[in-house]
């Protein structure tokens, strides 16, 4: 375990008679005091951090992807080396950055646990640290992280983070960053479903829903599966794997869900539930009549507090394609979550037409790129160049369509 200390600079208060300036300076000093004597320790196990971790994850704006149970499910499935960073200030937990080490072409990359399947990452921070982060010197913060991870990794690469999330700035924005090529798309859920739809083209959306409903009724109707028993949930997840595999195969793309570890991780998320929150809950559209019992569309969503994230979805392309079953399933999920304490339905990362049609809010994401060695400096430069190139292509629809066709043709 490596420990490094960072002391805050202290400045004297102005005279009490200078009221406005005094209050401003007092706030500044208070912010610095919140991060005074910051110690960072590196942990290779999750268990010693569980108590502090669970306390920090109660923050409603902390990503569910950094939750203790979420990370534990990933670690059990992948068993990669860990370098979890815990910051302590004035004897109390200030932050936890759940980090694992992955080796790529000889470069050791320190990244968020489970980052390959995360739609949003924030890290975990105490209220006191968040209040005081404005007094933290960016260069010194980067230096202490470098020292903590010295010899353990070549590059600190913390991906898919919004610099501001629901009105709050992320302290990690102090570190060297590059804008990620992917954005995320969200739909606020308002006081009722009608108000929610008004953020979109409500008339067009309702017309499309009526057409889809009639087409489904014409073949015998449908059942909307909302949750279910653990056995049913695991069975739906296995069905998703089969449907998605067929889709990737038809496009000539690699199946990102194919390996056993990813499947074990996602199955583990189904068993995570705490009140109204859940790691993964499967929803599906099951047909009646002509295709009785067949699943036309399936989706997995996660919930923490008032934030629901759609993690993935798939359709059976041989069943009622003219009814757009995937989009119809979104209607069922979103309307079903209305008035159930959900304020935001998140379609996750990736620019797709259906997301833009549903989501009036677009959120930029960024990556921390902090080299820790010469290898890391080279890898970090490459990551910045590749990310900016992808962003350039995605910002130009013609180039992007050509790149997608080429990717499908050569199978990368």
In words, what does this structure look like?
The chain is of the alpha+beta class and 412 residues long. It has 13 helices and 18 strands. The chain has helices at residues 19-33, 50-56, 68-78, 127-132, 138-148, 193-198, 202-218, 230-251, 260-270, 325-337, 353-358, 374-394, 397-410; strands at residues 3-6, 38-43, 84-89, 92-97, 99-104, 107-112, 124-125, 155-161, 164-165, 168-169, 177-188, 222-226, 273-274, 277-287, 295-304, 307-315, 344-349, 361-371. Strand 9 and strand 10 (168-169) form a beta hairpin. The chain is globular. The two termini are 40 Å apart.
Question: Tags for this entry?
Answer:
412 residues; alpha+beta; 11-stranded mixed β-sheet; 5-stranded antiparallel β-sheet; 18 strands; 39% helix; globular; disordered C terminus
Mean pLDDT: 87
Which spans of ≥5 residues are poorly predicted at pLDDT below 50? Answer: 1-35, 406-412
Count of helices? 13
Radius of gyration of CA atoms, rounded to a whole number: 23 Å
Number of strands: 18
Mass-distribution shape: globular
Short précis:
The chain is α+β, with helices and mostly antiparallel strands. The chain is built from 13 helices and 18 strands. Strands 5, 6, 8, 11, 12, 13, 14, 15, 16, 17 and 18 form an 11-stranded mixed β-sheet that branches. A 5-stranded antiparallel β-sheet has the order 1-2-3-4-7, sandwiched between helices.
Helix/strand layout:
Elements: E1 3-6, H1 19-33, E2 38-43, H2 50-56, H3 68-78, E3 84-89, E4 92-97, E5 99-104, E6 107-112, E7 124-125, H4 127-132, H5 138-148, E8 155-161, E9 164-165, E10 168-169, E11 177-188, H6 193-198, H7 202-218, E12 222-226, H8 230-251, H9 260-270, E13 273-274, E14 277-287, E15 295-304, E16 307-315, H10 325-337, E17 344-349, H11 353-358, E18 361-371, H12 374-394, H13 397-410
Parallel strand pairs: 6-8, 16-17
Antiparallel strand pairs: 1-2, 2-3, 3-4, 4-7, 5-6, 8-18, 9-10, 11-17, 11-18, 12-14, 13-14, 14-15, 15-16
